[in-house]
Amino acid sequence: MIAVITGDIINSQHADTEVWITKLKNLLENWGSSPLVWEIYRGDEFQFKCAIDEVFWHFLAIKSLIKSQENLDVRIAIGIGEENFSSEKITESNGTAYVHSGRLLNDIKNDGHTVAIKTSNDTVDRDLNILLKWSSKDFDNWTVATAEIIHEMIMNKEITQEDLARKFTISQSSVSQRLKRANYDLIVETNQYFKKKISEL
């Protein structure tokens, strides 16, 4: 089984495309090469595949990166399933993971949510989607400053609060306050729970 993330940028027409698209490409390059593992298409949509136990952390990395740009957000549909056909281009690959993810993105565009998951297990879907709805109440309201800090923490597990204070030229206590406001410890716990539920599939 694999995880496929299909997403689109919210408010992309109100932002400098070159800035966010360059940052998104640089992020996705960390995880594999285009167009085999990821691709950006139709201007502001993208698709990316990864291991199922990494998908929540990758979702958060993308979310925090985009939210660290003024006025931008991202819609993300996570599909978990098989890959029956692997093409040289991810957008031409196929299997239940791709089908789940692609259809789900259309659904969440219609219902106003910013993230959802679809697997072949309705019970797991129900549990994880309730979790995502609650957590998104936080994620969707991250400020640019909070998103920047979260992104650094996700991308570099070894980074310390002192390192972050130097990077953003703020005090260490300000870093600590931002992480508390973002419920960072709870985010880490949620990632562990997500992995556990996915492993039951």
Assigned CATH architecture: 2-Layer Sandwich
Q: Walk across the major sheet and give the strand order.
A: 2-3-1-4-5
Portion in helices: 40-55%
The first-to-last residue Cα distance is 9 Å
Low-confidence stretches: none
Major sheet description: 5 strands, mixed
Annotation, overall tally of beta strands: 5
Oligomer: single chain
Strand content: 15-25%
Based on helices, strands and strand pairing, what is the structural class? alpha+beta
The CATH class, by name, is Alpha Beta
What shape does the CA trace take? globular
SSE map:
Blueprint: E1 2-10, H1 17-29, E2 38-41, E3 45-50, H2 55-67, E4 73-81, H3 96-111, E5 115-118, H4 122-139, H5 144-155, H6 161-168, H7 172-181, H8 184-199
Parallel strand pairs: 4-5
Antiparallel strand pairs: 1-3, 1-4, 2-3
Helix pairs in contact: 1-2, 2-5, 4-8, 5-7, 6-7
Briefly characterize the structure.
The chain has eight helices and five strands. The chain has 201 residues and is of the alpha+beta class.
Which keywords apply here?
16% strand; 8 helices; 53% helix; Alpha-Beta Plaits; alpha+beta
Please characterize this protein's 3D structure.
The chain is of the alpha+beta class. The protein has a single domain, classed as Alpha-Beta Plaits (2-Layer Sandwich), CATH 3.30.70. The protein contains eight helices and five strands. It has helices spanning 17-29, 55-67, 96-111, 122-139, 144-155, 161-168, 172-181, 184-199, and strands at residues 2-10, 38-41, 45-50, 73-81, 115-118. The protein has a five-stranded mixed sheet, sandwiched between helices. The longest helix has 18 residues, at 122-139. It is globular, with a radius of gyration of 16 Å.
